[in-house]
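This part of the workshop introduces the protein records we will be handling. The question running through the whole workshop is how a given chain folds. To make this concrete, we reproduce a full record directly below:
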Amino acid sequence: MVIIARQLMIAFHSLFTTKKYKLILISLVLIAAFISVSELAVAKLFTGIILNEGTMSQTKLAIFIVGFFIFFGATRAGHFLQRIYRVNVFEKAFKESNAEVKGAKDNWRWSLAFELTSLLSTCTQLFVIILFFTYLNWGFGLLNILMVLCIFHIYGRLFKGQIEAQRGFVQAKKDKNPVANVVRIGTRIKSGETGILISGSIMLILLGALIYLSYNGQISQSDTIVIFFGLRMQNSNLSNISNGLMRFARALTHSE
C-alpha cells in the first residue's frame, strides 16, 4: 500500500511541476469525489421514493421524482465535463513544465497522466464511499475499512511485482531482445484480474455482513439498499484501481 502512495505522489509532482496545475488537478479529483457522493445521494433518494411512495402526497412525490432526475443528470454531466477538461489541463501543464520530453516518452507521459488522474479520482471516490458507509452504520463501516485495507495490501504487492516486470520488458527492448506480446500483455492483465478476483471475494464477506445486520434489524431497509448499491460502486472502483495500477506501472516504467 505504501509503494502505491509513494509512486502516485512522485508521478504527481513530476508531471505537474507548477502550483497552479497541481491545484487544478486536485480540484478535478475533488469534483470526482462530489460526483460519488451525489450518486449515493441519488440512490438514497430513489429508495426513499420507492419505499414511501404509498404514504407520500402527490405533490411531495412529484418533487422527489423531479429532484431524483435533476440529481442523476447533474452527476452524469459532471462526470463528462471532468473527464473532458483534464485533457486541456494536461496540455497546458506539460507546456509549462521545464522538462523537455519528445517522441515515445511524450506519449507515455500522457498515458501516465491519464492513469494518475483516474487512479486519484477513483481512490478519492472510494474514500468518500467508505465515509458514507461509516456514517450510515459505524460497525459496518469499520469492517469495510478493514477489508479495503487488506485489498490495498494485496494490490501493493501486485503493483510492486508489475513494476519489476515492466522494467524488465523495457530493458529487454533496449537490449534488442523484445518480449512477445502474449507475455507483456498477459502479465499485466493477469495481475489486474488477480486483484479483481481477490477484491471480489472479499466483497462477499461485506455482503454477508450486510445481510446479517439487516436481518437483525441493525440497519434500516432504506440504508441496506443504499449500502448494497454503494458496495457495488465500491467493488467497481476497486476493480478499476486494480487494472489502473497495472497500466500505471507500464506507463511509469516506459516514461522513465
